[in-house]
Amino acid sequence: MSPIVEGFSALLDPMILLCIAAGALLGMLVGAFPGVTATMAVALASGFTLSLEPLPGLAVLLTIYVSANFGDRVPAILINTPGTPASIATTFDGYAMARKGKAGLALTSSAFASAWGTLVGIVLLMVAAIPLSRLALNFGPAEMFALVVFGLTMMIGVSGGRIVKGLIAGGFGLLLATVGRDPITGTPRFTFGASELSDGIPFIAAIIGLFGIAEVMNQILVHRKGRGVEPIKDFGRWFPTREDWRTMFKPLAIGSGVGGVVGIVPATGGDIAGILGWDQARRLSKHPEEFGKGSLEGLTAADTSSNSTLGGSVTTTLALGLPGDSVMAVMIGSMVVWGIQPGPSLFANQPDLVYSIAGIMLIATVVALVISVLRMRGVAKLLELPQHFLWAVILVFCMVGTYAVNNSVFDVAVMLVFGVVGLFLKRFGIPPGPVVLGLILGGLAEGNLRRALEIGGPANILTSPIALGLLAVSALALLAPPLRNAWRARRARAAESTTTATS
Amino acid sequence: MRSTTFRLSAAALAVTALTAGCADRGGVSEDASDYPSQEVTLVVPYDAGGASDLAARTLASEMEDTLGQSIVVENRSGGAGSVGLENLASQSADGYTIGYLPVESVMLGYQGYEVDPVDYDLIGQMVSVPATIAVPADSPYETLEDLVEAARSEPGSIAVSNSGAGSIWEAATTELGQATDTEFQPVPFDGGAPAVTAAVGGQVDAVVAGISETAPAHADEQVRVLAVFDAEPSESLPDVQTATEQGVDIVIGGWGGIGAPAGLPDGARSTLEEAFTEAASSEDFQTIITDSGNIPVNVPSDEFAEFVDAEYARFGELLEGQD
Q: Which of A249, A341, A503, B11 is exposed most, by the fewest CB atoms within 10 A?
């Protein structure tokens, strides 16, 4: 029997299907709960699954991993709070769509985009795991630095047309990223003696504050002024029309490509991929001006991209034995205890296991998609609560979720401070996206640049073709739009002068 | 409308504060002979899911059997473990809060954190993670001596990755340089796995990491482990000599044990020690730790205390005077 048949037929055990169902429900729930990430859920569940056989155990963990990346879209779209960091970019257009009365369409198309992204990743895992993982090994500190620089050029894109304010916000994010111990020497910087700040600003607390709490505070303020905002009650139509599908086609393709690559690069995941995919789709779109204001294209690209990373991360993990993201780092721990040693020899010795894993993810994707589409209306009913109850519930959820991350009241305080910061940004029309981008990428840029310099000085970067290529693309991404605009303006002037001359 | 929103938000804040307050249980006054009469909290200073967390959780579930009470594992990560360790030291010494003590508990005090081993009563050591040094599979260096020679010919030219600034693996790299009268260039990464990845990909000349991280890559011929920094050769690396066997006398590595805030009552102390010894010698515990690639040990409290004192002195010499 071929390993594909063997691997897939091993999943026909009802016990495994039961585990997938349990994992899907659990994953959806933790995904929808702001603060509780897929990593945490998998880490806590692995305490219980260690006593299971490897396949049922993997079924629970992998399904949580997959379905948390569906559930987290719900709060992102409905209350502007990413359920996990992977849905940061979902808020850009998802919440705007919901505010425009298209919450139903946003939820359903987000689920379809997420499912498509996950499937692309699984196909990558099944057909090209070994060659792709070789590619991943070429990404050392120098190449990672160049990749992050490319990511930083997106700051202008995520500014939503307010370039100066976007750059201010991005600079602020980069400054925030300098808080914490120096990545090379370990010297404390701006920690004010608080050990909690040694690893930098707690990221999850910061994004929940910037997006969720800031929104709640803004609503409270708006109430006081007596200008009640329209609650999202009008969901509009739920299913995409043929026209919508046609709009979604291009961002689905772009998102899959971006997410697939980001997934394979070690230690980068759905949060970065979502933003990157969103920005690439914006650059290539015929309607870039709609991005950030409720564009279906933007939502589709963000969700496809962040979920395409899942297959890539599993690929790196299984084929190299090196974790593709933080969830896989936890999962390797469990696999090792089950006697599964991820690494190149896994594909030679147990190819059926690789296909079983792909099969579990495949079933999990289908289950998560079905739950998403069927259950949306029920979840959305919650929003019919009177607004003042709703915001209070959200506040409690955000606080409990943030506390649970690390059992830390400090994190809750950080979340509230960032809520106030987010409120100010909102009031002054400064987009929060670039702040998050600076916060994620600042530390990565610094750490990898310094590492590259420690290893071989500037030559370490200048002799790497991948790094040079990425830096060149970054420069192009920055210079191309203004040059193109200047060229167009000149041509328009030229055309104008010829028309005046001939008339 | 407005006042309702405000009131509800205030209530939300109060609920959260209360929940948080309840978590920090106050001291429990009771007769020592009753111990333990309620659940015990085990503070792990790292995120759930890592090797230390696994060791602590496995031990905890074994200790529950002897104690007859449940043990709740509480992850408090951050600041290289200092957040959880400081939290542990600040709890009341009633035996209802214990914690996982990693090697960092004797290092952080020299790195600007408020962590001092005298703040803990030691219960026992259960796991040992010897350091190893490995080179990429296609590296020209075949033995530890080759690598040391290369470093001597141009001190600082050999880049050696490790899991992070101030980590035990960085300290081991420094100590290797001192013991061989040369200098290696430590390159801190963001975690042990990326550090090993850098060696697999050939971005660095070598990596110093725990045996559980390098042994699987060695078996897959992605890296070549040149030496184990332990007193005895390891079962998981049968073909690799110790550093001592190769003439470089270093024994260094990570370890983990259980401790409690200093000043534990005698009754609670002996109950915990008994439960610890039984749990650490249980077959389940030993199997899970061995399978995860580390070495299960069962060191009683007095020996563990001596060992911790010696380690504290050792890292004082190694780390002080550095940044």
A: A503
d(CA A233, CA A101): 8
Is residue B258 within 8 Å of B271, Cβ to Cβ?
A: no
Q: How confident is the model at residue B177, as a pLDDT?
A: 94
> Which residues in chain B touch residue A196, judged by CB atoms under 8 angstroms apart?
78-79, 83
Structure tokens at A121: 């990743």
Domain boundaries, chain B: 34-128+254-319, 129-252
Residue of B71 and A384 predicted with greater confidence: B71
Q: Which stretch, A153-157, A211-215, B167-171, has highest mean pLDDT?
A: B167-171
* Residue B2 scores a pLDDT above 60: no
CB atoms within 10 A of CB A374: 9
Contacts for B231 with CB less than 8 Å, ≥ 6 apart: B242, B244, B251
Interface contact flag, A388 B194, Cβ < 8 Å: no
The whole-chain average pLDDT of chain A stands at 86
Q: Which residue of B has its CA nearest to A341?
A: B216
pLDDT attached to residue A128: 81
pLDDT at A138: 84
Contact at CB, B78 and A181, closer than 8 angstroms:
no
Find tokens 């091993």 and name the residue: A10
Question: Amino acid letter at B222?
Answer: Q
Are A216 and B9 a contacting pair at CB < 8 A? yes
Of B8, B20, B216, the CB nearest to A409: B20
Which of A451, A463, A466 best probes binding to B when mutated, by most B CB atoms within 10 angstroms? A451
* pLDDT of A394: 82
Distance from CA of B57 to the nearest CA of A (A): 8
Mutate to test the interface with A, among B200, B220, B284 (most CBs of A within 10 A): B220
B217: CB partners within 8 A, 6+ apart: A321, A343, B134, B196, B199, B200, B223
- Which two structure tokens, joined as six digits, stand for A251? 């961002």
What φ, ψ does residue B226 adopt, rounded to 5°?
-90, -30
The fourth-level CATH superfamily of domain B129-252 is Periplasmic binding protein-like II (3.40.190.10)
pTM of the model: 0.81
- Chain A nearest CA to B33, separation (Å): 31
| Collapsed DSSP state (helix, strand, coil) of residue A313 | helix
Mean pLDDT of B317-323: 71
> So what's the pLDDT on residue B287?
92
d(CA A442, CA A433): 14
Which run of H or of E encompasses B188?
Answer: strand B185-188
Condensed to tens digits (0 to 9), the pLDDT of residues B203-220 reads: 999 999 999 989 989 998
User: Of the CATH numbers 3.50.30.10, 3.40.190.150, 3.30.2350.10, 3.30.530.20, which one belongs to the domain with range B34-128+254-319?
Assistant: 3.40.190.150
**A373 membership: H or E segment, kind and range:** helix A351-381
Q: How far away is chain B from the Cα of A409, in angstroms, using its nearest Cα? A: 7
Q: How far apart are the C-alpha atoms of A107 and A110, rounded to whole Å?
A: 5
| Six token digits for residue A205 | 């607390």
CB neighbour burial string for B149-164, b if at least 16 within 10 angstroms, e if fewer: ebbeeeeeebbbbbbb
Residue range B72-99: mean pLDDT, rounded? 92
Rounded CA separation A320/A130 (Å)? 8
Q: Is the pLDDT confidence value at B21 over 50?
A: no
What residue of A is the nearest CA neighbor of B58?
A47
Contact, A186 vs B111, CB < 8 A?
yes
Start-to-end CA distance of chain B, whole Å, equals 57
Residue B33 pLDDT class (50, 70, 90 cuts): low
Question: Out of A184, A197, A337, whose CB is closest to B292?
Answer: A337
Whether the pLDDT of residue B82 is over 50: the answer is yes
What is the model's pLDDT at position B9?
A: 55
Q: Which residues of chain B are within 8 Å of residue A400 when distances are taken between CB atoms? A: 16, 19
